[in-house]
Amino acid sequence: MKQLVIDEGNAKKLYPKASDDFKAVLEDTFGKPFFSEKPTDRIKTFADACEILDIDTDDVWHESDEQDEVAYKQLKVVVRALNFLANGKKEWVPDYNNSNERKWYPWFYMDKPGFRLDGVGCDAAGSGVGSRLVFITEELARYAANQFLGLYSNLFEI
Fold first, then answer.
1. Which of 15, 33, 147, 155 is placed for a possible disulfide with 71 were both Cys, Cβ 3.0 to 4.6 Å?
2. What is the pLDDT of residue 128?
3. What global pTM score does this model have?
């Protein structure tokens, strides 16, 4: 019996023009999110973000980094990867000289019940958050705040 072997790169090339039956086989093999171009389908974990940007997860932080430093470095990768996919697989660098360009960021609420998303803001002239942690869309800011709440919590909580 002969066996067909398809690597990830070829699977992505074949998928758009494949028949529905062959698409189902590819999705069973690689997973449906693998073929999605939507950032929120593709990036569910820090490791997914590293894979999108071709970064080794072990190279992101140093063993001497504190919990908040590790979280910040991981969030930088996640934000960069989400924006990269949302921007047509091109690096997105916020233009802080352009007051018409929106830069979205999540806003959190901390109290006794716990750490949680309070809202999403957009500030054209300034930022209440690190400039490397802004998003190209409101949807991405909300998604990241909910999907990566643990990382944000590690960044802000003492």
1. 155
2. 52
3. 0.78
| 8 Å CB contact between 60 and 73 | yes
| Residue with token string 């929106």 | 102
Alpha helices by DSSP H, listed for the chain, are 8-14, 20-30, 32-35, 39-42, 46-53, 67-86, 138-147, 149-156
Q: Is 39 exposed, middle or buried (0-12, 13-18, 19+ CB in 10 A)?
A: buried
Angle at 105 between CA 100 and CA 109, to 5 degrees: 140
Specify whether the CB–CB gap between 135 and 82 falls below 8 A. Answer: yes
pLDDT, tens digit, 9 for 90 and up, residues 89-107: 999 999 989 989 999 989 8
Tally the residues of the chain.
158
- Amino acid identity of residue 24, one-letter, is A
| Residues of the chain with confidence (pLDDT) below 50 | 125-127
